[in-house]
Amino acid sequence: MPDSPNRRRPRTRHVRSPQPSPKRAREPFGGYSSEEADRHLMNYKTAFGDAEDDFRALRLTRSIIVTARRWRKIANDHLRQAGQSMARWETLFLVAFSGKGLPQTELARLIGVQGPTMVAMLNQLAQEGLISRYQSETDQRVTVNEITPAGLAAITDIMGITNVLRNELLAEIPREQQELCIDVLDAILNKLDRMR
């Protein structure tokens, strides 16, 4: 049927070939590169003019947070290949080395998670045979958790992976500086305990 003079013909769409996106440097998880983070802090200081002590404290606490976040991300990336995670390691570590059978409420408090999250984790670890769970002899409402030989083997596997990462991370930092860092972080942690 011939086109009527008033009927519009469909436009031909010209599709552009996708252009390759320029390669960008991989951004670190949980923050910016240290150079960029320093620039942000200096921009903040210029805008707000904090006193030197306040600004130093900001840099320190911010460094602690970002460092912990990045360490956890890198460790989890490596542990995931072995079917593990830092959350699982932390739970297994506390169950194994607390010196007593810890109830799930105490584990949740120590790790800093909600009760349901802790229960799901413990149930999964028990299903895999890494911990055993049983009712307390003194209080039937309390479920006690203990490590199994398979759980100890999992801790050994996890430590094997993370020890390699720790050694790589700290290889260029002299032992004396590492010891000083431990002392400073211990002092901060002790102060935080008193501030609660």
Tell me what the structure shows.
By secondary structure, the protein is mainly alpha-helical. The protein folds into 2 domains: 37-81; 85-196, Winged helix-like DNA-binding domain superfamily/Winged helix DNA-binding domain (Arc Repressor Mutant, subunit A, Orthogonal Bundle), CATH 1.10.10. The protein has helices at 34-48, 52-80, 86-97, 104-111, 115-127, 149-170, 175-195, and strands at residues 102-103, 131-135, 143-147. Strand 2 and strand 3 form a beta hairpin. The longest helix is centred in the middle third of the chain and has 29 residues, at 52-80. The protein is globular, with a radius of gyration of 27 Å. Mean pLDDT is 83; it is low at 9-24.
For the largest sheet, list the strands in their spatial order.
1-3-2
Give the class from helix and strand content and strand pairing.
Answer: mainly alpha
Q: How do the SSEs run, as a string of H and E?
A: HHHEHHEEHH
The biggest sheet amounts to: 3 strands, antiparallel
What is the mean pLDDT? 83
Poorly predicted runs are 9-24
The helix content is: 55-70%
β-strand percent reads 5-15%
The CATH homology group name of the largest domain: Winged helix-like DNA-binding domain superfamily/Winged helix DNA-binding domain
Question: What gap, in angstroms, lies between the N and C termini?
Answer: 84 Å
The CATH architecture of the largest domain is Orthogonal Bundle
Number of helices: 7
